[in-house]
Design brief:
InterPro entries: Phageshock_PspB. The chain crosses the membrane at residues 6-24. The protein has helices spanning 2-34, 38-68. It is mainly alpha-helical.
């Protein structure tokens, strides 16, 4: 009786969920192995440029804080 209760979900999983899961898994593996598209490469370069700009801004803000409030790094609020 207990095995009958478990068999139905297992059968449904094997017939419906497992094939979809495998298809999506191998499709994503294939996309990863193909590398970046032109659009993705362009977006990556834009993000790198933004990160560099943000890093420069943070360095500038830290330099300003170092001059105006030298103890700001030691605060643990």
């Amino acid at each position: 009786m207990n095995t009958d209760i478990l068999m139905a979900p297992i059968i449904i999983f094997m017939i419906v969920v497992a094939p979809i899961w495998l298809i999506l898994h191998y499709r994503s593996k294939r996309q990863v192995s193909q590398g970046l598209t032109e659009e993705e490469f362009s977006q990556l370069n834009e993000l790198i440029a933004k990160a560099d700009k943000m890093s420069h801004r943070i360095d500038t803000l830290e330099a300003i804080l170092d001059n105006e409030a030298p103890q700001w790094r030691n605060r643990h609020d």
